[in-house]
Amino acid sequence: MRHALRLARRALGTVAPNPAVGCVIVSPGGRVVGRGWTQAGGRPHAETVALSQAGALARGATAYVTLEPCSHHGKTPPCAAALIAAGIARVVAAVEDPDPRVKGKGFSLLRDAGIYIITPVMEKEAASLNEGFFLKVREDRPLVTLKVAQSADGKTAVAPTETKLGENKLGENKWITGEAARRFGHLLRAQHDAILVGIGTALADDPDLTCRIDGLEWRSPIRIVLDGKLQLKESSKLARSARNVPTIVFTTSEGGDALKALGIDVARVVPDVHGRPDIFAVLRALALRGVTRLLVEGGATVHSAFLERGIADRLEIFRSPTVLGAKGHGTVDALSALDAGNTSRFVHLCSRKLGPDVLESFAVRA
Prior knowledge:
This protein is α/β, with parallel strands linked by helices and 366 residues long.
């Protein structure tokens, strides 16, 4: 099952609105004869891939799957029926599928066919892996991960410098963290269905918001901008590349025809008490679009809004030894509780050393 979970992890960020599933088929003699994970776009499913590899060797074998095999006819035939037809003798499943179309029905089909079922196995790990899919089913919203890069003195951005003409521009080094941390940040992008920034970050940084790791460029997520007053410039990188990388602007204003003409999906939602796009409305709209995993990259105002409203499920905090002083700006006040040791809401998962920087990962306490 650990191996099946590792296979499933490969699919994160590529299979929405489907879950990321892994499957390992082991012969009666204990040999792995088939492996698979959900393919890009959500199909074929992991079981189909593994059964194709196993062929006739699947008869009498055990299938280890990270999620209950589906029982309904969608864009692909049900995996439970495929396992039965292949002659699988035993299914070891990590967790039940919460989707009402499945939810125990897959197990029932297998049992009725005489297949022995063992479940749950490593249920907690499997549920964590597909938490975004589970949240979409149960709460009509995606998993929300906040990615924060902080200097040693708590700053989250490098202040722009003044040119001789009086125009603002970023300094030569706009990065807080080093290359290793930035590469890991791109891996996080590849593992999420969508990436979100506020209009302040979009205007100040003019970001690409794409995955720029060799071989993973195709895994760039949907790009989201919270832009209440439709300030995103037509000349921005986001606007100019919208026909190549799906881009959504959530606004509270009417209009946006110029952005629409460039291929941007301009979606109007209700405002919050500050007149900005309501975060809950945005999350519901993203869930309707099939998004199960959302990475929020900033800036500080957006991070704080998610934290204050209690809808951050995971935190990825990159800490740099660099002290920015007057060169830095933007702090996320809601993160001060973590530094003070008050982690009643979040539990610390792990720390990673990335060059000179440290990544600390947190999740909402169960």
